[in-house]
Amino acid sequence: MRKSILVTGGTKGIGRAIIDRFAKEGFDIYTCARKEGDLVALKKSLEEKYPDIKVLAIAADLSKKEEVNSFADKVKSQVIPDVLVNNTGIFLPGAIHDEPEGNFEFMMQTNLYSAYYLSRAFAKEMMQRRSGHIFSMGSIAGLTAYPNGGSYAVSKWAMLGMTKCLREELKPHYVKVTSILPGATLTDSWAGVDLPMERFVRAEDVAESVWAAYNLSPQTVVEELIIRPQLGDI
């Protein structure tokens, strides 16, 4: 029976790299993003390159609880994925004391609440099945405070805490939980920055790390994986 992976925010950056890596191994793909056009292009590309896999790509704004739940229901009507990657996220720079009103709520809803609701949507079935792997895409910002991190850093610290709790809850049921904590990764979030590519982590390297963590034996789990640029944080 073919395996499946659900990756939120799958049309660009780390999410896209993870999808490509698992599709290469024959996994069926379930994903979402805000822009319909990007999803159509992703689905077409994957189906041309990997004609034997199934691809479900749904437009959804995961900053909204009702759309998270609607997306989860559509996936659950077809499959309980073997792998769930909570990758959706947004970065808006600013300081806690003066960032624009609404930044905190928007980033918490997008970066944290979406992962909370999706994990809840699939955890019970994974527990009953006694298998599954949930990855949460955190950040170095969830380990190290820095100026101008603001609500983004708060959301990533909270994501790490939630993932630790989920790990403790699910480990007796043989469901694995892993926090991925990348440093500066060459994605659209860094577009326009005047720095050489060599200063960034490659999205493909993050995807390879997720694949490697998934492929460990059933009795072993990577709880946290920190991935930094070789020359250090930016």
From TrEMBL:
Q: Which positions make up the signal peptide?
A: none
Read off the Pfam families from this record. Answer: adh_short
- EC number from the UniProt entry: 1.-.-.-
User: What GO terms are given for molecular function?
Assistant: oxidoreductase activity
Q: Which UniProt keywords apply?
A: Oxidoreductase
Q: Which InterPro entries has this protein been placed in?
A: NAD(P)-bd_dom_sf, Sc_DH/Rdtase_CS, SDR_fam
Q: Which family does it belong to?
A: Belongs to the short-chain dehydrogenases/reductases (SDR) family.
Under what name is this protein listed? SDR family NAD(P)-dependent oxidoreductase
- Origin organism is Algoriphagus aquatilis
